[in-house]
Amino acid sequence: MSRVHSHPDRRSPLILEVHELGRGAGACQRIDTTVPAPADMGIEVIGVPQDSDIELDLLLQSVSEGVLASGTATVQLHGQCARCLDSIEDEESFDVQELFFYPGNEMDDDESLVVDETIDLEVALRDAVVLELPFTPLCREDCLGLCPECGFNLNEDPEHGHGEKIDPRWSKLADLTGDTPN
């Protein structure tokens, strides 16, 4: 899958100017900002809500091949526990690292480019966050889940039970003896 490298929409908060870095290796620029989250940044059961705050703490470094962006992105996560279906709200930090190549360098089709002296962090940010999200998010590690009989949340009462079960094939005999199941 190749990335399309069109001219960036400079109004996007995830488009960063790198003109000040120049093309010489060694120049650095610290980025410490808060931006709104793009749409569809997550998986079906957990993700980053659109337009919620993403705190970026990045260092942009000019290297011979292009611009290296590295640092962390702190996001708000919202989702649903895979065991008990309770809502999950959490804040988590993810490591972001991406090399944006200057045009003209030899590279693969799926590499990121410096376009018009800007870099677009959206794909790198999406990769850093979405690929690290759990497939089965839990509200806590020892979540007990739901009762398979009635759907009761076992975290609220771990001793929840339904009494002794009688095999339905023997239930007619229980009726004859007067023993009724609990």
Could you describe the 3D structure shown?
- The protein has 2 domains: 15-130, no CATH class; 144-182, no CATH class.
- The protein has helices spanning 122-130, 171-177, and strands at 15-17, 28-36, 41-42, 46-48, 53-63, 66-80, 87-101, 112-113, 118-120.
- The protein is rod-shaped, with a radius of gyration of 26 Å.
- With 182 residues, it is mainly beta.
- The strands form 2 sheets. Strands 2, 3, 4, 5, 6, 7 and 8 form a 7-stranded mixed sheet that branches. The chain has a two-stranded antiparallel ribbon with strand order 1-9.
- The chain is built from 2 helices and 9 strands; from the N terminus they run βββββββββαα.
- 9% of the residues lie in helices and 35% in strands.
- This is Metal-binding protein.
- InterPro entries: YceD.
- It comes from Tessaracoccus bendigoensis DSM 12906.
Write the layout of secondary structure elements.
Layout lengths: L14 E3 L10 E9 L4 E2 L3 E3 L4 E11 L2 E15 L6 E15 L10 E2 L4 E3 L1 H9 L40 H7 L5
Parallel strand pairs: 7-8
Antiparallel strand pairs: 1-9, 2-5, 3-4, 4-6, 5-6, 6-7
Organism: Tessaracoccus bendigoensis DSM 12906
Protein name: Metal-binding protein
InterPro entries: YceD
Index terms:
rod-shaped, 182 residues, seven-stranded mixed β-sheet, Metal-binding protein, mainly beta, two-stranded antiparallel ribbon, 35% strand, YceD, 9% helix, single chain, 2 helices
